[in-house]
Amino acid sequence: MDSMDERLSALMSAMEIELNGITLYRNTAIQTEDIHAREVFKFLADEEVKHYRALRDIYESIVKGEAIKFELKGERPSFKKIFSDEFRQKLQGKNIEFSAISTGLILEKNSVEFYREQKEKSAEDELKRLYSELESWETVHYNMLLGEYNDLKALFWEANQFYPF
To answer: What's the pTM value of the predicted model, to 2 decimals?
Structure first.
C-alpha cells in the first residue's frame, strides 16, 4: 500500500469510529428520560460529528491532492456528571443509559488508542496534529464516562438486583 492509500485507509477507519459514536450517543439521547443526560449525550454526539467532518474534509483534500488543513472548534465538556440526582435515585430498569456508558467507554478507549497509533505512524505534521487533538478530545470523553460509570456501577447493580455471583 502506498502512503496515500495508508492515509486514506486510516482516515476511513477514523470516520467509522466517529460514526459509531454518533449513532450511540444520538440514540441514547433519544431514548433516555433524563433531561440532563439527554443534553450530555447530544453534546457527545455533536462532538463526534465535528470529528467526523474534520476527518472527511481531510480525506477529501488528500484525494484532491490539496494541502491538509483542519480546525476542530468547540468547547471541552465541563460536565461533572451525566445524570441528574433524581435519575441516580431511580436506577432500576435504566439499562439503556448504563449500557450506553459501558459501550461509550469501549468506543472512546478504542478511539484514543487508534488516534495515538496513527499519530505515531504519521509522517505528516498536520496529520500528527489532527490525531493528537482527536486523541486528547477522546481522552476527555473517556474520562468523563469512566467517572460516571464508577460512580453509578454499584448503585445500578443494587437497584437492578444484579450480583456478580
So the answer is: 0.82
